[in-house]
Amino acid sequence: MxxxxxxxxxxxxxxxxxxxxxxxxxxxGLGVGYSVSPKSTQKTYLALKQPPLRPPPQVFGPxxxxxxxxxxxxxxxxxxxxxxxxxxxxxxxxxxxxxxxxIQLGLNLIWMPLFFGLKRPIEATADITLLTGVTGYxxxxxxxVDTGAAWCLAPYLGWLSFxxxxxxxxxxxxxxxxxxxxxxxxxxxxxxxxxxxxxNKAPERK
Length: 206
What we know:
By secondary structure, the protein is mainly α. 67% of the residues lie in helices and 4% in strands. The chain has seven helices and two strands. The protein has helices at residues 12-16, 18-35, 38-47, 60-83, 88-117, 121-143, 147-173; strands at 182-185, 195-198. It has a two-stranded antiparallel ribbon. Helix 4 (60-83) packs antiparallel against helix 7. The radius of gyration is 20 Å and the shape is elongated. The protein starts with 11 loop residues before the first helix and ends in an 8-residue tail after the last strand. The relative contact order is 0.14.
């Protein structure tokens, strides 16, 4: 059972301020997304063999932005309700949830670099599986503090479950190795002579 660990938990001021609570995960999520390169990420996504029901890449940006905002609002709601309580158990659950929230945010932010940047599907799938478990426990903990906060986390938890399926399915269909799907190809326009592309990428339409 995870307890409140101040040294690895976001500052109280983040949870207490609605703007900070919402904008922090949104900003970090966008920052990680752009650091990995959206164009490169989309090309990789379309190139890999994927399980049924995969959404188009355009869905992910708006979806994650909304979910980051919801998780931030959930954090603000839970913290505000919990710290205002006179019940020591409620206060403890609130702070325990703050530690869980911080852990899940960290796990969330490293998934994209693992999956798309480093092309490590095994580690990425392990990460998102753990992330889903931590978020499920966080939802349970904060449901005892503020039911509204728990409901705000429900769409996020549902999406994580779906994303875990996509991550595991993609890894399995590609033999858990993205590197061997790459090939060297001549690129006359760049002048470098060599580029990386995926062997099962559909040819571009003229």
